[in-house]
Give the backbone structure.
Amino acid sequence: MLDWTQCIAVERDSEKVGGEWLFKGTRVPVRALFENLESGARIDDFLDWFPGVTRDQVETVLRHAERSLTVA
């Protein structure tokens, strides 16, 4: 399980979007990035569809997820 508290690009507020992990400063769930990528979207597509999210945030989230795969 990922420890999203260690990722600087995200935040969680129990009063926003049901307490889901969101891209910091937005109401866009991190889950939306992975769902869109799994469906074949490109990062540029995602950024077009969710203009409040920055490329830096997306890259930070992806690096965080990748690091979790190397930790045993």
